[in-house]
Every structure is written in structure tokens, then in C-alpha cells.
Specification:
- Strands 3-2-1-4-5-7-6 form a seven-stranded mixed β-sheet, sandwiched between helices.
- It starts with a helix and ends with a strand.
- The chain has a single domain, classed as Rossmann fold.
- Helix 2 links the parallel strand 1 and strand 2.
- The protein is globular, with a radius of gyration of 18 Å.
- The protein has twelve helices and seven strands.
- The protein is an alpha/beta fold and 284 residues long.
- It binds S-adenosylmethionine.
- S-adenosylmethionine binds next to loops.
Length: 284
């Protein structure tokens, strides 16, 4: 797996995008879930979550998880998360917001700002982002516009509502938490292989909406295997559903006949998120 070459092929559109999630692939920059609307307080908990854009990770830390491990099929997810982590740690609030496009999308990934904190990235992440900036001739906005970053169009009010860290007080809290975390535990794997790679138990797992893209039977088998790595009373938030009645939501709904399964509406002041829900498995 040549990460830089594959990423260059994605950046230059030499690689045709498939519908499947791949080992090196377009990555999300922000969550498209209302994480704030369903992630509970995780005090003293050990957590396993999808990597994605890191928003489950950062919000779990803000919700007081004492340990958070990540997994994702897409290795680029790791570089997004390292970039955000260094941004939290070494940029002030306003500069962080500028760099991640909150105020003016044209300044997203601004190269001058990148230079302020890139020296704090680890060697692998530095090599990765330097390579991309070189390809983009230091135009950060071109990286954002390329297929490296998912073109899911975020509405700024959704990004703000979903991520506690865009409130300055929470940003400062996260800065302090991250200062005590030297490295990120990231398992690069397909979810169906994940149960074979785990080495410890967790109190909560967050699987995002990965199940949407999985065969139901295979996904339920994986869920069962993952549940073996749950502590007693642990929970797997295994399916985030965006509201429309679908074959998936009907399938998950049938599971509610068992006392292990439950569903909860995702709370939100935003109209666009009001009918989202999340399905959970609990270990008795
Ligand atoms: C399903 S996507 C959608 C974005 C997500 N709702 C969020 O808010 O971040 C989340 C992540 O799941 C990862 N993913 C998708 N299929 C996967 C699989 N089979 N195994 C592991 N990770 C997977 C993707 O690479 C992506 O980073």
C-alpha cells in the first residue's frame, strides 16, 4: 500500500472513485451526525469508535471518556485526525476556526497557518500533509476541494451544533485533555475484521452509520462478535439513521423485540437533524 501515491491518484482524480469505502480513500472533514444529540457522558469509560473525521473521538474525550481507541478502513482518516489534534493543541481558538474553514471557506487549510503548527505533527503525518501541500502548490483550499476530502456539503450551523469543540470553552477544555495524550490508538481495518484485532474490553462503542453499507446478516454477526468485547452494562451505538424510512431502519426496528436492543431519537434544535435516531445494543 503506497499511501502517498494512492493519495496523489485521488487528488489528481487518476483513481476512479468506487462506491465502496477503501483502504486509502476520500475522508470526511466533519461529522454528518449530530454527535452532541446522542453521545452520553462517558465518565471513566473506555471507548472504541469509528475514526472518520475524528469528531466522535474528540467529542468522546470532551464527554470525559478516559480512553478512546479508533478504527477505520480508511488510512487517510488517521491523517485528518492528527491534523485536527495538532490544531487543537497548538493553535488558538480563532486561528483553529480559520484553518478549518469556519469563518471563510476560502481560507480552509491555509498554508501560512499550516506552517505554524505542522512541526508538531508526527513524522508520518508531516510527510503526508507536506506531500499534499506540495501537490496543491500550497493552496490549502485546493486540498479541500479535491477528492481527498468528502464533498459532503456541511452547513456551518450543523457543524457547530454537532461538535461541542467549536464552542471556545470546550475548545480550551479539549486542548488541556489532548496535552496529556501523546498518541492515538488507530486500528486500520474493515469493521468485519475488527473483532479479531481487539485486545481489550470497552464500555461503549460507536459504529456510526457503517452498517448502512453492510449486508445485514454479516453486520449482525460482526455486532455479536464485537459484543464479546463489551464490559457488563456496556453499549454499542451501532446504527445512526438519518430519518427516512428505509429497508435498514425497518430491519433494525425488528431487533427491538429483544431486550438487548433499543433506539433513541437524536435531540437537536436543528430542523435538519430532528428525525435522526440511533440504535443501540446493551450487554446485560
Ligand atoms: C460511514 S462514514 C460516514 C461519516 C460519519 N457518519 C461521520 O459522522 O463521521 C464514517 C467512516 O466509516 C468508515 N467506514 C466505512 N465502511 C467501513 C468498514 N467496512 N470498516 C471500517 N470503517 C468503515 C469510513 O472510512 C468513514 O471514515
Amino acid at each position: 500500500m503506497n499511501i502517498l501515491l494512492e493519495s496523489e491518484n485521488i487528488y489528481t482524480k487518476k483513481r476512479i472513485k468506487s462506491n465502496d469505502f477503501e483502504e486509502i480513500d476520500t475522508a470526511y472533514l466533519f461529522t454528518n451526525e449530530n454527535i452532541n444529540g446522542y453521545m452520553p457522558n462517558l465518565s471513566k469509560q473506555s471507548v472504541l469508535t469509528v475514526g472518520s473525521c475524528g469528531d466522535h473521538y474528540f467529542n468522546a474525550l470532551l464527554n470525559e471518556a478516559h480512553k478512546v481507541d479508533l478504527f477505520d478502513i480508511n488510512y487517510i482518516s488517521k491523517f485528518i485526525i492528527y491534523l485536527k489534534k495538532a490544531g487543537f493543541e497548538y493553535l488558538d481558538y480563532d486561528t483553529f476556526c480559520i484553518f478549518f474553514g469556519l469563518y471563510d471557506i476560502h481560507r480552509i487549510f491555509d498554508y501560512d497557518i499550516y506552517q505554524l503548527f505542522s512541526k508538531f505533527l508526527n513524522d508520518e503525518a508531516t510527510a503526508y500533509w507536506n506531500y499534499l501541500y506540495k501537490l496543491a502548490r500550497n493552496r490549502g483550499h485546493s486540498i479541500y476541494e479535491s477528492d481527498i476530502i468528502s464533498n459532503y456539503h456541511h452547513h456551518i450551523e450543523e457543524v457547530l451544533a454537532s461538535n461541542a469543540y467549536f464552542k471556545e470553552k470546550e475548545f480550551l477544555k479539549l486542548k488541556k485533555i489532548l496535552a496529556n495524550i501523546s498518541d492515538i490508538s488507530f486500528i486500520h481495518t474493515d469493521i468485519n475484521e475488527l473483532p479479531f484485532l481487539l485486545q481489550e474490553n470497552y464500555d461503549s462503542m460507536f459504529l456510526s452509520n457503517i452498517g448502512t453499507y453492510q449486508n445485514n446478516t454479516i453486520f449482525m454477526k460482526t455486532l455479536k462478535k464485537l459484543s464479546k468485547y463489551l464490559n457488563v452494562h456496556g453499549k454499542i451505538y451501532f446504527a445512526y439513521i438519518y430519518g427516512n424510512v428505509s429497508e435498514k431502519s425497518l430491519f433494525y426496528h425488528q431487533l427491538l423485540r429483544s431486550s438487548h436492543y433499543d433506539v433513541r431519537g437524536v435531540s437537536s434544535e436543528l430542523k435538519s437533524c430532528q428525525d435522526h435516531k440511533v440504535y443501540m445494543y446493551s450487554k446485560n
